[in-house]
């Protein structure tokens, strides 16, 4: 600093002697920068404050916070100074405005991604050989006494593929869009995913699945759309060839441009490559105008820096009208989709057990089970959940063979007698799940979230069926004694515990191959939770719907709430409630859960629950 001050004094005296001629000034700047450092010169901008959305916690996705950003260009001023030529000089204000605009619109999940994106932006917009970026988050660790959390990165031009290059690095992250509006759309999407994996793409994450109205050509059926983030060692051209071959194998026919198709596989972004050939343009030339691409892309990469556009998908989406699309849960067996955002789904309970706390022994025979399921379907159930093992506190575990004996004949009979019904199997055993799906089940409902059987995730990934991931601690014998949580910023800590469990287990399921659009989250009412915990979860379902596991850019994975006839419902009465009172109270708590964000409710009395949910949705709609 002292040396720099001395140099600046010399520069000022010289400028006065030369009457501040530009050539003399440039020469002195060059002298100044070289005298102060024997290495490359630097342009530094420090302490730029930007208020933006950043972070993974639910409150961070809705409340902007301040970041302090410092960055530096590592360059050589000698050529600029000697020639007095500003064509290659760095414009400080332009760089600062560009960084501020990018950071404020990125809505990044991590500081690492944000800093890397800023570095890429600075390299793209300058001749600097290297840039360094530091981003501080002053509020992050304040309660622990730390001044801030921060990330620093340095990036060189060699860290990025050459603009216009066609070769891929050894491994590149690629974003691929999938679409279908002909035939069995969920099955087509599933086959498209298998084709990606067969082409050597390692699936890193998937978006939700969306039903979207057709664009460009309006006279055609609605589409299912999704985006996948994958990793591949193929070149862009080689990957394109694989995708086109897959489209042909899966039945895509030649049709009018933007017309109907069984499957569509499009490369949106391929690492940091920019490419334009007769066959392929990267990034995709129309992605910025398509909400049906940008919404699912934001699920898997809202803060990814897209070259050419020099923006993130989140920023592109903000420039478009509100999207007309609906997240759905696929049922490939019948080519159906469940539109849980339009109307919450009712899951009717069908216990084939002799010892369930509510209706044990009533439906152990196939005939009575089918009769009761038919009644629930007539009352408005969207899903029938068949269970063969009681998971009430204190219940004895059931051997796999016995559980199979109880549930498989019932599932087979339901599939025969109620062919259009959507069936769920309530089990935590992978073997039972596989057998039930083979018999006709469409969904796996695992009350242990994959904790009790390590093979459950890979089994559901292999079956390509929706998977309900529930929070619990311990088994039926010990769960009551484990209803203890560390108090946090919100209440008893149970909400944070559920959110953390979801995030960790959902990531394990995704890594095992369970696609995000097949995932349903359940807070596990009554499992290792006392009454206070259960009511706290109901009150904070809106928070849980924005947890890292649930939250997407605009929509969240559906949350299933199962509070029907459970102990905390009965305990709310000052007397021993009748079955009628329990069902009325269960319907009310289900409606309250829907009003706070649940999109599926698991109930015993379907008729009452349907009425309560209908009123809850009506009361929640904005007044026109």
Can you give a write-up of this model?
The protein is an alpha/beta fold and 624 residues long. It has helices at residues 2-17, 22-36, 78-83, 92-106, 111-124, 185-198, 236-249, 291-301, 313-318, 366-378, 400-417, 430-439, 456-463, 494-512, 531-539, 541-544, 567-571, 579-595, 606-620; strands at 41-52, 65-75, 130-137, 149-156, 172-180, 202-206, 209-212, 223-232, 264-270, 275-276, 281-282, 326-331, 336-338, 345-351, 383-387, 422-426, 443-446, 467-470, 519-522, 560-561, 600-603. Helix content is 37%, strand content 20%. The strands form four sheets. An eight-stranded parallel β-sheet has the order 19-18-17-16-15-14-21-20. Strands 5, 6, 7, 8, 9, 12 and 13 form a seven-stranded antiparallel β-sheet that branches. Helix 10 (366-378) links the parallel strand 14 and strand 15 (383-387).
Descriptors:
eight-stranded parallel β-sheet, 37% helix, seven-stranded antiparallel β-sheet, 20% strand, alpha/beta, 624 residues, disordered N terminus
Secondary-structure map:
Blueprint: H1 2-17, H2 22-36, E1 41-52, E2 65-75, H3 78-83, H4 92-106, H5 111-124, E3 130-137, E4 149-156, E5 172-180, H6 185-198, E6 202-206, E7 209-212, E8 223-232, H7 236-249, E9 264-270, E10 275-276, E11 281-282, H8 291-301, H9 313-318, E12 326-331, E13 336-338, E14 345-351, H10 366-378, E15 383-387, H11 400-417, E16 422-426, H12 430-439, E17 443-446, H13 456-463, E18 467-470, H14 494-512, E19 519-522, H15 531-539, H16 541-544, E20 560-561, H17 567-571, H18 579-595, E21 600-603, H19 606-620
Parallel strand pairs: 14-15, 14-21, 15-16, 16-17, 17-18, 18-19, 20-21
Antiparallel strand pairs: 1-2, 2-3, 3-4, 5-8, 5-9, 6-8, 7-8, 7-12, 10-11, 12-13
Helix pairs in contact: 1-2, 4-5, 10-11, 11-12, 12-13, 18-19
């Amino acid at each position: 600093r002292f040396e720099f001050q001395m140099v600046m004094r010399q520069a000022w005296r010289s400028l006065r002697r030369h009457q501040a001629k530009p050539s003399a000034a440039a020469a002195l700047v060059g002298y100044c920068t070289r005298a102060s450092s024997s290495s490359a010169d630097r342009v530094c901008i420090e302490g730029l404050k930007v208020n933006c959305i950043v972070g993974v916690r639910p409150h961070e996705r809705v409340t902007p916070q301040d970041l302090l950003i410092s960055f530096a260009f590592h360059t050589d001023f000698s050529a600029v100074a000697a020639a007095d030529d500003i064509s290659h000089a760095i414009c400080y204000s332009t760089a600062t405005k560009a960084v501020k605009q990018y950071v404020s619109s990125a809505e990044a999940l991590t500081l690492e991604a944000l800093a890397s994106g800023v570095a890429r932006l600075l390299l793209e917009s300058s001749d600097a050989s290297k840039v360094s970026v530091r981003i501080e988050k002053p509020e992050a660790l304040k309660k622990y006494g730390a001044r801030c959390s921060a990330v620093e990165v340095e990036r060189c031009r060699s860290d990025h593929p050459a603009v216009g290059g066609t070769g891929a690095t050894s491994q590149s992250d690629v974003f691929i869009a999938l679409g279908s509006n002909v035939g069995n759309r969920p099955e087509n999407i599933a086959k498209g995913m298998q084709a990606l994996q067969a082409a050597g793409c390692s699936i890193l994450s998937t978006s939700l699945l969306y039903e979207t109205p057709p664009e460009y050509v309006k006279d055609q059926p609605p589409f299912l759309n999704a985006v996948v983030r994958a990793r591949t060692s193929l070149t862009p051209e080689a990957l394109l060839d694989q995708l086109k071959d897959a489209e042909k194998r899966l039945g895509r026919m030649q049709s009018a441009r933007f017309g109907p198709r069984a499957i569509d596989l499009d490369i949106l972004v391929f690492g940091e490559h920019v490419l334009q050939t007769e066959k392929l343009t990267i990034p995709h030339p129309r992605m910025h105008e398509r909400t049906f691409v940008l919404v699912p892309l934001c699920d898997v990469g809202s803060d990814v820096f897209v070259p050419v556009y020099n923006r993130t998908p989140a920023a592109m989406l903000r420039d478009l009208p509100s999207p007309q699309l609906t997240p759905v849960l696929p049922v490939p067996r019948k080519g159906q989709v469940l539109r849980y955002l339009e109307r919450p789904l009712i899951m009717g309970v069908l216990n084939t057990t002799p010892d369930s706390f509510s209706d044990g022994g009533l439906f152990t025979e196939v005939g009575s089970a089918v009769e009761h399921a038919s009644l629930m379907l007539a009352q408005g159930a969207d899903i029938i959940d068949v269970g063969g093992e009681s998971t009430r506190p204190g219940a004895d575990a059931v051997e796999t063979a016995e559980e199979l004996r109880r549930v498989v004949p019932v599932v087979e009979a339901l599939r025969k007698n109620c062919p259009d019904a959507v069936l769920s199997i309530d089990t935590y055993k992978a073997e039972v799940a596989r057998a039930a799906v083979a018999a006709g089940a469409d969904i796996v409902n695992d009350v242990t979230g994959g904790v009790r059987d390590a093979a459950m995730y890979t089994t559901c990934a292999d079956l390509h069926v929706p998977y309900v991931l529930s929070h619990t601690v311990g088994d039926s014998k010990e769960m009551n004694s484990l209803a203890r949580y560390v108090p946090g910023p919100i209440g008893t800590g149970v909400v944070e515990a559920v959110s953390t469990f979801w995030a960790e287990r959902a990531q394990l399921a995704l890594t095992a191959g369970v696609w995000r659009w097949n995932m349903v989250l359940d807070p596990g009412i009554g499992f290792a939770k006392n009454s206070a915990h259960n009511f706290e979860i109901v009150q904070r379902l809106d928070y849980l719907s924005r947890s890292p596991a649930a939250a997407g850019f605009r929509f969240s994975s559906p949350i299933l709430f199962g509070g029907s006839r459970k102990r905390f419902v009965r305990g709310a009465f000052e007397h021993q409630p009748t079955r009628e009172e329990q069902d009325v109270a269960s319907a009310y708590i289900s409606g309250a859960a829907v009003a706070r964000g649940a999109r599926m409710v698991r109930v015993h009395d379907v008729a009452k629950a349907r009425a309560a949910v209908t009123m809850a949705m009506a009361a929640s709609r904005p007044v026109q």
